[in-house]
UniProtKB/TrEMBL annotation, chains A, B:
PANTHER family: NUCLEOTIDE-SUGAR TRANSMEMBRANE TRANSPORTER (PTHR10231). It comes from Daucus carota subsp. sativus (Carrot). This is CMP-sialic acid transporter 1. The chain crosses the membrane at residues 34-53, 74-95, 101-120, 127-144, 164-184, 232-254, 261-283, 289-311. GO terms for cellular component: Golgi membrane. SUPFAM superfamilies: Multidrug resistance efflux transporter EmrE. Residues 1-18 form the signal peptide. Belongs to the nucleotide-sugar transporter family. CMP-Sialate:CMP antiporter (TC 2.A.7.12) subfamily.
Length: 335, 335
């Protein structure tokens, strides 16, 4: 499968995630515990990967699987980074408001590219660096509060630790992605086996979070396994399946494409969500959304288009198309 | 002189034009007739060009000067286009508000590039086209009304003829620039002679406007030559000299560089004015101004940087620097 097909699918699914999550509310609030969604999504991903791995194991030759502890022990690391990230995110939000947090989230695009260069030692051209910055600027532009909207003035007025935590948050989020790419590409193990390891630890860490929530809440609503499906409706299940599917696609992209492709995919999804919100929830379109979308599309073209499409290069002299000449001679003889 | 020195000077002078014009107000209003400023600026440009032309004529060999009517009759055309443009601009403003008009003004960047391609047959690379669009997007982004500002909602709500006139206005403004470039480059006449022709007609058309204003106003304040310097102070004179100087620089750029350089120069000036306004008039900086500036700087780099700086091209193998080797050998013998 071509990477851009997977990336496009990821864009569509990620953008529907936001829409579905909004639709899963009843009377403007969530009737279910949102923390159960990522746990169930991990279980879904684990199930799908296990089935696919089993199918592959029955074939010959059997797939490559590194099973020694030295390799397996690396797989909880992305989960651990995400755990730290979630706590930093929580701390950040005590200093800054959600819209400032959202704006700072675009930093992740730049930090991912920086870590991609530093840790994975992948070189980007000058133009690709500019494309990365433009993507971050485009997404930020699209989020600029419209004229007349409420809750103004908060953007440049948060305390300094808020911004520092926001930067740390962007770095951690990027690090988790970069580490996952390193993990999936470091050997030729089958992706399904790598996924099984990733999602097993993912499920464990998500379960730990649910248990922790129980202790924090003093078991007021009973233990997590009793309230697991409380308030679930069809759309909630769609949210779970959708989140699981996007996870599987991200994992595929990390193995066969890279983090930058994933970043473009999810950034485009954010813009698509905003466009869909205009149609579905009659949000008012702003000029800055329109401008941001154009900037992001240009960035996409700048990053992925081959150099000869962008700048005028001396085209290497082609050899004479002899077959074509022969064909036309044939035709003349025929008529 | 290098074109980028002239372009930078144009940026500084154009941006100070806005600042000076604001400073030339007394008690928040203009005490002088603003229509007299461009007329006096034309006279200033005519004087400077005449003096420089005369000096050049005294040298040998004398400069090239085409003096037949067939050539001279082309020189009022830019003034005529500007005259039509001013009327279209006036008509546009009856349909749209000033901030919508300002936003639409950025279209001029794109129309200039289009006419540059069509009429002057100058090819731009794919990347340069993207840079042009990014410049227009960047300047537009910087002008997006901030959250909480007054007079909202008007941007997408003007009647259709307003937008059509805005596009026409952008085309006419670009056409005047492109035509001037064609005029100045069509032969090897000295720039000073070409300027004398341009500004003579410029002065005539500006005078005609002042006369027309007199008739429209019923000579209530007397004929234009009596009220020419009414309410002028030192800053008003600086506005005149500044406008005249920018005109001379633009003319130089049209002859020795091109319209795109001029467009970059004036767009950067607009951003510089906004930055200076923050410092001088304590305007509140917005996130969109910051984003717009970065986009414009990237656009500048994309347009003017040589291809090998932007994309990774195979570098042609260099010949061994033999002279350098010889020098070092010489030195060794000397010591």
């Amino acid at each position: 499968m071509q990477w851009y097909v997977v990336a496009s699918l990821l864009t569509v699914l990620t953008s529907s995630q936001g829409i579905l999550t909004t639709l899963s509310q009843s009377d403007g609030s969530y009737k279910y515990d949102y923390a159960t969604v990522p746990f169930l999504a991990e279980i879904f991903k684990l199930l799908v990967s296990s089935i696919l791995l089993r199918r592959e194991c029955l074939r010959s030759p059997p797939p490559l699987m590194t099973t020694d502890w030295k390799s397996i022990r690396l797989y909880p690391i992305p989960s651990i980074i995400y755990l730290i990230h979630n706590n930093v995110q929580f701390a950040t939000l005590t200093y800054v408001d959600t819209s400032t947090y959202q704006i700072m989230g675009n930093l992740k695009i730049v930090t991912t590219a920086v870590l991609f260069r530093l840790f994975l030692r992948r070189k980007l051209s000058n133009l690709q660096w500019m494309a990365i910055f433009l993507l971050a600027i485009g997404t930020t532009t699209s989020q600029v509060k419209g004229c007349g909207e409420t809750s103004c003035d908060s953007l440049f007025s948060s305390p300094i630790p808020g911004y520092m935590l926001g930067v740390l948050s962007a770095c951690l989020s990027a690090l988790a992605g970069i580490y996952t790419e390193f993990l999936l590409k470091k050997n030729n193990d089958t992706l399904y086996w790598q996924n099984v390891q990733l999602y097993t630890f993912g499920a464990i860490f998500n379960m730990a979070r649910l248990i922790l929530d129980d202790f924090r809440g003093g078991f007021e609503e009973g233990p997590w396994w009793q309230r697991l499906f409380n308030g679930y409706n069809v759309i909630t299940w769609m949210v779970v399946l959708n989140l699981g599917s996007t996870g599987l696609l991200v994992s595929w992209l990390m193995k066969y494409a890279d983090n930058i492709v994933k970043v473009y995919s999810t950034s485009m999804a954010m813009l698509l969500t905003m466009i869909l919100s205009i149609i579905l929830f009659s949000f008012k379109p702003t000029l800055q959304l329109f401008l941001g979308i154009i900037v992001c599309i240009m960035s996409l073209h700048m990053y992925f288009a081959p150099a000869h499409m962008l700048v005028d290069l001396p085209v290497p002299a082609k050899t004479a198309p002899e077959t074509l000449v022969e064909v036309s001679v044939d035709r003349k003889t025929d008529s």
